[in-house]
Design goal:
- The structure is a single chain.
- The chain is an alpha/beta fold.
- It has helices at 2-13, 18-33, 50-67, 76-88, 91-116, 140-151, 163-177, 192-205, 233-255, 290-311, 341-351, 355-367, 394-407; strands spanning 38-41, 44-47, 131-135, 155-160, 182-186, 211-214, 259-264, 317-323, 378-380, 383-384.
- It has two domains: 2-115, no CATH class; 124-407, Rossmann fold.
- Helix 3 (50-67) crosses helix 4 (76-88) and helix 8 (192-205) packs parallel to helix 9.
- It is globular.
- The protein starts with a helix and ends in a 5-residue tail after the last helix.
- It binds NADP nicotinamide-adenine-dinucleotide phosphate.
Length: 412
């Protein structure tokens, strides 16, 4: 299936010249595995493009598999390819096919075990009369969290950058839960002016705030990308925006205590091995790519939680951070993930939790009685879990707080 899907993807990416692209896929694969780097079509020869080379081997294997099913799939490309394949198929090619099959079966088994073992929120607590804000509730984990909290009777504010998309989600939640108190408000967490505007709007419209879920997130970019305010995009979206938002809403949270702040982070924080609080936006340092920079933003979420919990001691406001698990959401199609999106999407589809299950650890921290008095902790699968050494460093958390305060101009 995986290989078939990939061939179709390759094929559909080249629909402007379908016949050529299909032949290219099969020929290029055959040529690449035999070390030839030129493509011949209609008597003309040209070098393979970089992206063609990348997809070639897989295409080759797909066609190989398809060629074993002549009744299902007959085409000029396949017959042509069969001719070439028959000459060059060696045991190692079959070994690759077998390896793919084993990997697929293993992935399925891992997926079943992983989702079965995932934590679930068993609390039946109602939230009537409570107000919750969820950033990034127009999709994925945020959307399912919003649905759950609305089902418990809360007034839920979907804080989203795409209000049209979010309104559709709100309408769906209202229809399913019957709760009319599901509202959409605009915020772009990567833009500090937008965050301020949103926060002031909330302060003027809401009398209470019991649950703030800082969920919006992007996986980051392959190259350093800055916002119009000069902040690195993943740091701005995932950390700075939520840092500012929480601080601006803190008095309202305190006045509504007991209340909670839940920061949605990730196990990817382990990917960050050094946090330079003097250069959070990679102005002077080499930009390490999307995964380490995503890791830095997610490490910042945990350190923010740590320092915030210290500052909130005795206020009745608790805060915890949570890794939702590997969840099959739109995030795999976005920004940084695009480099490997096809593989990521397939892997997520086979192995990851669905969005509803992915929202469970977030809902747990937002509502469960078990964490009524727990603060400053990191959770995975509805259980407290170890985080990286950096993530537990209170001095680093303080330095991050100080640097973030300056960068978002908190006291302006
Ligand atoms: N999925 C996973 O496996 C996984 C694993 C670990 C951690 N997480 C974390 O879980 C959180 C939710 O991710 P997800 O998987 O549910 O991803 P998702 O389906 O892509 O949802 C992300 C949400 O954040 C919103 N968003 C992105 N940039 C924003 C911005 N600048 N301003 C306001 N909203 C913004 C998106 O809005 P649009 O709808 O407009 O795009 C969307 O609503 C993220 O913090 C992510 O880092 C996810």
């Amino acid at each position: 299936m995986l290989l078939l899907a990939e061939t179709l993807l390759f094929y559909s990416c080249n629909l402007h010249q379908p016949k050529e692209s299909f032949l290219l896929g099969s020929h290029a694969g055959a040529q690449q595995v035999t070390g030839v780097s030129r493509f011949k079509f209609n008597g003309q020869e040209r070098p393979l493009l970089q992206e063609e080379r990348a997809l070639a081997v897989d295409s080759f294997l797909v066609v190989l598999v398809l060629s074993a099913l002549p009744k299902i799939f007959r085409s000029e490309g396949v017959s042509l390819f069969k001719l070439e394949a028959s000459k060059m198929v060696g045991p190692w090619v079959w070994a690759t096919v077998v390896a793919w099959t084993i990997a697929l079966v293993a992935a399925l088994v891992v997926g079943v075990l992983y989702t079965r073992g995932s934590g679930r929120c068993t609390s039946t607590r109602r939230l009537d009369g409570k107000t919750a804000i969820i950033t990034g509730a127009s999709a994925g984990i945020g959307k399912e969290t919003a649905r759950d909290l609305a089902g418990r009777g809360a007034r839920v504010i979907l804080a989203c950058r795409n209000t049209e998309k979010a309104q559709k989600v709100a309408n769906e939640i209202i229809a399913v839960t019957g709760n009319q108190q599901v509202l959409v408000r605009h915020v772009d967490t990567s833009n500090m002016s937008s965050v301020r505007k949103f926060a002031y709007g909330i302060l003027s419209s809401e009398n209470n705030l019991h649950i703030l879920i800082n969920n919006a997130g992007i996986p980051g970019y392959t190259t350093r990308k800055l916002t119009s305010e000069g902040l690195e995009m993943a740091m701005a979206t995932n950390h700075f925006g939520h840092f500012l938002l929480t601080n601006l809403l803190l008095d309202l949270l305190k006045a509504s205590a007991p209340s909670r702040v839940v920061n949605v982070t990730s196990n990817a924080h382990w990917m960050c091995h050094h946090l330079d609080t003097d250069d959070l936006n990679y102005k002077w340092r080499h930009f390490p790519g999307w995964l380490p920079s995503y890791g830095q933003s997610k490490l910042s979420n945990i350190l923010f939680t740590l320092e915030l919990s210290q500052r909130l001691e005795g206020t009745g406001v608790t805060t915890n951070s949570v890794h939702p698990g590997v969840v099959n959401t739109e995030i795999f199609w976005k920004e940084g993930w695009k480099i490997i999106n096809f593989y990521a999407v397939i892997a997520a589809w086979i192995m990851a939790k669905d969005e509803k299950l992915g929202a469970q650890p977030v809902v747990y921290l937002a509502v469960s009685e078990e964490v009524d008095n727990v603060s400053g902790k990191y959770f995975v699968d509805c259980k407290e879990a170890p985080s990286s050494t950096l993530a537990q460093d209170p001095a680093l958390a303080k330095r991050l707080w100080g640097a973030s305060e300056k960068l978002v101009d908190l006291h302006s």
